[in-house]
Amino acid sequence: MLKIVSAKVIVTCPGRNFVTLKIETSDGVTGLGDATLSGRELAVASYLTDHLVPCLIGRDAHTIEDTWQYFYRGAYWRRGPVTMSAIAAVDMALWDIKAKVAGLPLYQLLGGKSRDGAMVYTHANGNTIEETLEKAQKYIAEGYKAVRLQSGVPGLKATYGVGKAGKPYDPADSDIPSEYSWSSEKYLRSVPELFKKARDVLGWDVHLLHDVHHRLTPIEAARLGKELEPYRLFWLEDAVTAENQANFRLIRQHTVTPLAVGEVFNSIWDCKQLIEEQLIDYIRATVVHAGGITHLRRIAALADIYNVRTGCHGATDLSPVSMAAALHFDVSIPNFGIQEWMHHAEVTDEVFRRTYSYKDGALHPGEGPGLGVELDEALAAKYPYKRAYLPVNRLEDGSLTNW
User: Fold this and answer.
1) Which of 121, 160, 187, 282 is catalytic?
2) Residue 289 among the catalytic residues
3) pLDDT digits over 221-237, tens only?
4) Within its chain, how far is the Cα of 211 from the centroid?
């Protein structure tokens, strides 16, 4: 038995807020897990500190599956992003410990490599189509084989995915939610033009992706998917909200543009119908918000039966701990599709020292034992938590809509 002797929650803000769980065992081996839930970080920190950590002390660190079931089935009030992010942190930390004890990189415990590295896509955005394509050309020159394109919408002051004043995009921008104005009509007029020009400028040897961010109705999304068919997108992401999974049936009836969804999902039940009816092509659930490596592997296994591939969310609201865990997962599963990668701020990489690396359009998890990430607690303490909310969206008539 490898007894857990301590577990603590570390909240830090090196560029943005992160919640990290650190578990220590009786032989001195430690493991890290990410518990970050953007805009609701302290809710997960409290869930861990007040409800899970007391139950961890004395447990066997090797019993990962039993511990996952203990915190999921044993809670009675199951699922939800706060619960599942907390369970994910425990799960990641225990996998980190197990791999360190074995002296192996985590992917070896997940069955070994199915591929050399995980193809990643990054974000090219700008206030105009020209700015967006200029950034995309820069990334392609750096070896990226896939780029997500987001551009400003004429007539709207701000648009999802587009940074301010040339800075990297980070939506958690205020200690009280910012409010933005939205028009689906203006958006739908602009996106096909973005991708028409993108193919003219970037050619056909690069994968192009786009994120709607849950803002359309199913029939609007169907029309957009159909209009984008000539430009052969890698995927159209989050075209509608997915609480009603059957909404995707209507989109599927009208377009063959590949569909991706799932960054806000927190369990297999959120995507069961989407996968079984083959209404999507990529499932984007994350290792942190979907209950950790243990549960994400179940989602991937279900998806594999139906030829659905993974495309895990990888924005900067996931810490390097999550990114490392995602990469070990990515290289091990048979039905990997692509991995999102937004570069963390330099100060974030100083606090979270990581071994994963980028080369030729792919990320590689590294060969060190465990996840390959260590937290500098002394440095983390110098960056205290700062409240930061995600924005809200209103239609031009003032009514609230999906952000």
Assistant:
1) 160
2) no
3) 999 999 999 999 999 99
4) 13
